[in-house]
């Protein structure tokens, strides 16, 4: 199956040789070709270039005329929690009335509320609810996502969540990476004996997850009021013994030390980072750990944004992700994340797009196959509507500007 897009006004994020990530000053640059074509064969990108260089003898099975439209790699969303049951809009009201995220958690709300709802849901119900979210994410331009467990908080329910993620991976065109997040909160049954719960994660949950091959990565909510650095290190070491690299929730609520621990154990990413100082930035330099920012959570919780500008100006790469979850970011709209990154964190649109494509692909180990327009990569692209420029994407922050989405070389919407 050959799918050809012609007359593209500008084709963005093109690469001759695949790079792993874009750092610092280079993030301001988004390589592009004007008046371009893009050829996809089966699931992969097979050629691209200027229209002038397109051979007239090429015969494609389907041709899309993109006159006046822009083409970009589909968004990569390297941090989500989209397998959950129900919703938590009552807590949204509690927050409006002045309770903090931590206060809600202490009252048995927050993650424990979702754990209760998830426990009562069947695997089929969870799959059906998550499928709606996956389809919505695809419709608004996401082509690859990481999905975490972490609302199970006991072995059986964590496995239930991970099996749902596996089923989503097998039945949808979204490229999916799975992360085991048993250390998301201490379940009610272990209140007062947090270290016994960490023992359970290390001795029972991680081996069970690994024996079914259900997770690519391991995560821990390393923050004030949740899991300590020492506990997180134990979890990272246990994950590593089973071949799972870590992606750590760090420094969302305090200077937790999570960034240092993440780098020490060669985490693939450290995520959130609202509390990041000079020492943390220094530690991230010369590491292979991707700082991943989730401005949707800062927006929704009314917190400070991570110091993205300072990180990039210090030479670091950053990735952006939605953190789609029922408590702190009930949205998987990566275009809105571009708006938050530009408006609230002062990234240029080019920097934000690099962060939401190639760097976010890196943060889930997919940079060889996703995140840019490069021959041999998976044919995951989005076509915009007719807009004045790609700056219009973050600028018109609530407009639906995605015309169509192609995943694995097939038009999916
Ligand atoms: O990434 N920070 C921890 N976990 C999620 C929130 C999950 C929830 O509140 O349900 C986050 O923001
Ligand atoms: Fe999260």
From TrEMBL:
Keywords: Cytoplasm, Histidine metabolism, Hydrolase, Iron, Metal-binding, Zinc. 4-imidazolone-5-propanoate binds at residues 88, 151, 184, 252, 328. Fe(3+) binds at residues 79, 81, 249, 323. It catalyses: 4-imidazolone-5-propanoate + H2O = N-formimidoyl-L-glutamate. Its EC number is 3.5.2.7. Residues 70-412 form the Amidohydrolase-related domain. It holds the Pfam family Amidohydro_1. Zn(2+) binds at residues 79, 81, 249, 323. GO terms for cellular component: cytoplasm. Binds 1 zinc or iron ion per subunit. One of its GO terms (biological process) is L-histidine catabolic process to glutamate and formamide. GO terms for molecular function: imidazolonepropionase activity; iron ion binding; zinc ion binding. CDD domains: Imidazolone-5PH. Catalyzes the hydrolytic cleavage of the carbon-nitrogen bond in imidazolone-5-propanoate to yield N-formimidoyl-L-glutamate. It is the third step in the universal histidine degradation pathway. Belongs to the metallo-dependent hydrolases superfamily. HutI family. This is Imidazolonepropionase. The lineage of its organism: Bacteria, Pseudomonadati, Bacteroidota, Bacteroidia, Bacteroidales.
């Amino acid at each position: 199956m050959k799918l050809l897009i012609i007359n593209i006004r500008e084709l963005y994020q093109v690469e001759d040789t695949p790079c792993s990530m874009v750092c610092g000053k280079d993030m301001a640059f988004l390589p592009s070709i004007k008046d371009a074509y893009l050829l996809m064969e089966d699931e992969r990108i097979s050629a691209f270039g200027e229209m002038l260089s397109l051979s007239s003898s090429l015969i494609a099975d389907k041709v899309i005329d993109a006159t006046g439209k822009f083409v970009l790699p589909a968004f990569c969303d390297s941090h989500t929690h989209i397998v959950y049951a129900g919703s938590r809009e009552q807590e949204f009201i509690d927050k409006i009335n002045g309770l903090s995220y931590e206060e809600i958690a202490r009252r048995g709300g927050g993650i424990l509320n979702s754990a209760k709802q998830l426990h009562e849901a069947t695997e089929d119900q969870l799959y059906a609810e998550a499928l709606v979210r996956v389809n919505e994410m695809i419709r608004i331009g996401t082509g690859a996502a990481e999905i975490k467990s972490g609302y199970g908080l006991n072995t059986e329910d964590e496995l239930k969540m991970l099996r749902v993620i596996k089923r989503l991976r097998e039945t949808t065109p979204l490229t999916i990476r799975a992360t085991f997040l048993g250390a998301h909160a201490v379940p009610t049954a272990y209140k007062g004996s947090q270290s016994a719960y960490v023992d359970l994660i290390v001795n029972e949950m991680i081996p069970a997850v690994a024996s079914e091959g259900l997770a690519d990565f391991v995560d821990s909510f390393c923050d004030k009021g949740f899991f300590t650095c020492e506990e997180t290190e134990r979890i990272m070491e246990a994950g590593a013994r089973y071949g799972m690299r870590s992606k750590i929730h760090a420094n969302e609520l305090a200077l937790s030390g999570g960034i240092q621990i993440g780098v020490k154990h060669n985490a693939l990413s450290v995520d959130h980072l609202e509390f990041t100082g000079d020492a943390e930035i220094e530690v991230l330099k010369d590491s292979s750990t991707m700082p991943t920012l989730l401005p949707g959570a800062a927006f929704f919780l009314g917190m400070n944004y991570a110091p993205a500008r300072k990180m990039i100006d210090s030479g670091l790469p950053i990735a952006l992700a939605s953190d789609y979850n029922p408590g702190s970011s009930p949205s998987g709209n990566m275009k809105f994340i571009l708006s938050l990154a530009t408006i609230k964190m002062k990234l240029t649109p080019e920097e934000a797009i690099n962060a939401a494509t190639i760097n976010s692909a890196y943060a889930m180990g997919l940079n060889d196959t996703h995140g840019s327009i490069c021959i041999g990569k998976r044919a995951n692209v989005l076509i915009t509507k007719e807009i004045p420029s790609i700056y219009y994407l973050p600028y018109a922050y609530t407009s639906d500007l995605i015309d169509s989405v192609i995943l694995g070389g097939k038009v999916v919407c």
